[in-house]
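Following up on my earlier thread - several people asked me to post the actual chain instead of describing it. Fair enough. Here it is, all 113 residues.
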Amino acid sequence: MHIDSYSFGKIVIDNKTYTSDVIVYPDRIDSSWWRKEGHNLQKVDLAEVINSRPDILIIGTGNLGVMHVPESTITFLESHGIQVHIAKTDRAVELFNSRPTEKTVIGAFHLTC
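Reply from S.P.:
Thanks for posting it. Predicted structure:
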């Protein structure tokens, strides 16, 4: 999967446009990703990610970085052996596109705020 572009409220992945938050897995895209508490990323919001057992999770916190990732969520992910990288979504997209090919990487991207 390659992210072709990102702008506020829109992401293009492998020539397909999405206008809602997405989780990008190695083999598919979940375009129906919603968080229990909106701008507060909780463990429960990442259950499927954890079940997929990635080496790395890249989290895009939005155009302005409004989505908060609590320390408890980071600690929980790390306790499952997942490296966590958090950045505003434009930077997170860059990280995702330059990900190491020998690792399993998942990207969770908030597209607005």
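The chain has one domain: 3-109. That should answer part of your original question.
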